[in-house]
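ok trying this again, last paste got cut off
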Amino acid sequence: MQILLVRHAQPVIEHNPDGPADPGLSNLGLRQASRLNAWLAHEPIDLVVTSPKRRAIETVSGVIALPVTHQVHDAFDEVDRLSNWYYPTEILASDGGEYWEGILRRDWDAIGWDSPEAFRQRVIDGWQALVAARPAERVVLGCHGGVVRQIVSHVLGLEGYPRLDISYASITRVEVDAKGNASMQSLNETGHIDGTRETFTDRLDHRPH
């Protein structure tokens, strides 16, 4: 089984005083998602699993539109799942104001974040359940940068929160063997944002030709 961890494309800023922010994609994010979906159209995807967040679902909407099953798993929501604010990562420090100050103070309850420990436990529990279920041969998991980092950290046996650059609309591939052992196949693929392709060589087919 191969699982493609897809970080969402660029979202818009959103403030929702009545509940958790759930922004859609920006104009740039829509273009990033279009490039991603055009790339993945050449791969035999069997299942799409996403976070419940709009930005994650919109990013892989082209794959969801194919005749494949789509499942929403709360386990793969981002650490900020209950926050009233959302700022794109690249402007969070400069524009986030009191929200950013709350992050620096680690005032998780006040800003609507899970604690680092609770976040990691939730994501890894969801990941292990997905791996154990082995629901399909090639799975797209549409999620978030923090979720991808936690899964990569777990697969590589790293402690803590790794400092990894996970770009918008990037693909990180994890292969899981028949015994449930996971190994990294790629990290932060972004070539599809600028490139195109017309064919696909199935890396799951190891037979000589």
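PB: full thing came through this time. Strands lie at 2-7, 14-15, 47-50, 69-72, 85-86, 138-143, 171-176, 182-189.
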